[in-house]
Amino acid sequence: MKKPFLTLLFTFVILSVNSQTIFGTWENRNEETNKVDSVIEVYEKDGKAYAKIIEITDKNRQDAICDKCEDANKNKPILGMNILTGLSKDGNEWSGGKILDPKNGKVYECFIKLVGENKLKVRGFLGISLFGRTVYWHRKK
Known about the structure:
Number of strands: 8
Strand content: over 45%
CATH topology: Lipocalin
Radius of gyration: 17 Å
CATH class: Mainly Beta
Shape: globular
Strand order of the largest sheet: 1-2-3-4-5-6-7-8
Number of domains: 1
CATH architecture: Beta Barrel
Helix content: 10-25%
Distance between the termini: 30 Å
């Protein structure tokens, strides 16, 4: 009786802790169709948050390159590309880093914040966050 209870308790704790973090895999959905167009892994390195594209759902775009990028990512494959770099934890959000939009090749300042167990607010902006765009990533199940 004791062993199954402890196993169940341990499983519950692991799942609830995992769902309270920005780290893990997230689905980026097309704003018009709500279909998943890519899967992104958010990970921690040296106390900062980063993210890379680990899956592109459109089979015709698997080999897409960032031809609109102007930095070191120019003409590099989008699959595997780091799109979120160097965010630091600031209260209940992560900020101070950059996000790359591989569709237009532009790099923006950004912040991210959990807005539910399975929803991540991603805000990219120029200068001040008033001038920008927000997208929501959904935790991959």
